[in-house]
Amino acid sequence: MLRIDETSKTLVAPQAGGFVTEDAPDREELLALVTSGWEAFAAELGHQRMHLCATEPVAGLDLLAFDEQAGRAVVAQVIDGDPAYEIGRALAACSVVASWDSGALADVHEALQMAMPGDSPGIVFIGGSFDARMLGTLDWLTRRHQISAACFSVSILRFGSERLLAVRRDFPASEGQAADPAVEVQNLLADPLKAVGVATAAAPAGNSTPPPVA
Fold it and tell me: Is residue 193 scored above 50 in pLDDT?
């Protein structure tokens, strides 16, 4: 990872203390950021073919999307409250969407014509963090009731005047779950070799280190 020095127009190794972690944005700011930057955000989640269809189409539903790959509607909720309230809000929104016929789905967005009426939407929760009670409830819902759900936590890093939003999937947990993004960046910058992304001149031939993959 290299920093672009805008003054000298050169590439320099970033300082380990250059990145500063900040609190996650509040719900209103995060909802606005996710809505306006949905395409980039969905790609960060690994769902490039999940298209935003509507914002707050009904009370309690933050964002309604269509997952082209899965062929289903997706309810995306930006959370900042009690887990029981947030899960209840999401399930209530899903029940409304599942009650729509093909005409009602198409009225919201043409992409939803491809969704199967009556199918339960998937649920994506987005927030600063998720406690054990919420994750445990979602684990039970997915295992015992076949609810398709995922949680993505966001954190903010500041580098100078720029803010960077890092996203991590908290549920379902993947094997070899990645460390917190802020910690990963600090660990990366603490190692000059990794920060620059190339081996030192003293390294044996053929041992060059490739740039770190985000």
Answer: no
